[in-house]
Amino acid sequence: MKPSAAERPHVGSSEEEIPVYLKLVKTVAWKVKPTETVKNLKALLYEKGIVSETIRDLCFAGKLLNDDERLVDHEQRTIVVEARANDTVESIKSLIKVTEGIELNRFSLIYEGKLLEEDWTLSSLEVKNESTICVVFSQKDVLSIYVKALSGKVAKLKVKVTFSVADVKAIADTMLGTSAGSLFYLGQQLEDSKILACYDIKEESMLQILHSLFQVFVKTWSGRTLTLDVQQNMTVQDVKDKIFKKLKIPVHLQGIIFSEKRLEGGRDLASYLIQKHSTLSMVLAPSSTIMHIEVGKITSSISHFSIVRTVKEMIRSKKGITVKEILYGEKALDDEFSLEHYGINKETELTVVY
């Protein structure tokens, strides 16, 4: 009988055996409180003989857990609480304690970015039916954070998680000698009225003072209005780049007008006194001219399968002009795509830039 594939093959007696170590991974279930820290969980697992004393790290969802973090920090869920308009914040916290088993001194409630005092009522806060109130755990009340100024100078601050963004900025201003700009964290502009806890700012986080974002309007030559988020230190060239991303109109074809002046690409918006809700006008660059033409009138041989590059050549042959761009619906057409790709037929009117 032939040996089965699972049967151990014969090994000669003269061959030395070597030790082989197998790492066996098993799953165990254990009940712990959601506010338990990672460090305490490691100690508990060791006490119960589940892991050795040398265990160093625990991971969840591919992320390494820090010792001072709590299990609840890695889970966000919604608790439904039934309350009346005259209920106080303290009574809401008591309901959460009953359902979640979290001690009252371990968490605070936040609504619309503000820390709620325990004697406030829901009606005084204008909390409506199905409103969402955030639960913020306050195990670590004081944080060490860094704030980086526009100049590149960095200050280290000790702040409370209940400090407002405006408070933190005021402290940073006295240390860094700056008063311009807004605070940003991970690319997000922080609202002055909200507290740090709303933004999940951790120990040793880096905040930056940058120019505030504000909106401006850009009116195109067809009358359409775009809304752009900009900063005072952005250049006119940056604005053109933003327009290109939205309309695909090449930057070299764009001219920007504000207060009846054509803006220079290298100058920033502040130098032109451009502010929130200012309206800019986009015109063609001085060296460009436009004309409108119906697709079917370009040539009889054109079809919806014709690519844009071919259409440009057809217009050049008929009109004797060098076509820079063809626009449809204020967007520049890609040379390699067909008219059909853009839903263009023979009755469609195109804007030709030459």
Please outline what is shown here.
With 354 residues, this protein is α+β, with helices and mostly antiparallel strands. The protein is built from 5 helices and 19 strands. The chain has a 5-stranded mixed beta sheet with strand order 7-6-10-8-9, covered by helices on one side. A 5-stranded mixed beta sheet has the order 12-11-15-13-14, covered by helices on one side. A 4-stranded antiparallel beta sheet has the order 16-19-17-18, with no helix packed on it.
Question: Could you characterize the architecture of this molecule?
Answer:
The protein has 354 residues and is α+β, with helices and mostly antiparallel strands. It has five domains: 37 residues, no CATH class; 49 residues, Phosphatidylinositol 3-kinase Catalytic Subunit, Chain A, domain 1 (Ubiquitin-like (UB roll)); 69 residues, Ubiquitin-like (UB roll) (Roll), CATH 3.10.20; 71 residues, Ubiquitin-like (UB roll) (Roll); 64 residues, Roll (Ubiquitin-like (UB roll)). The protein contains five helices and 19 strands. A five-stranded mixed sheet has the order 7-6-10-8-9, covered by helices on one side. The protein has a five-stranded mixed sheet with strand order 12-11-15-13-14, with helices on one face. A four-stranded antiparallel sheet has the order 16-19-17-18, with no helix packed on it. The longest helix has 12 residues.
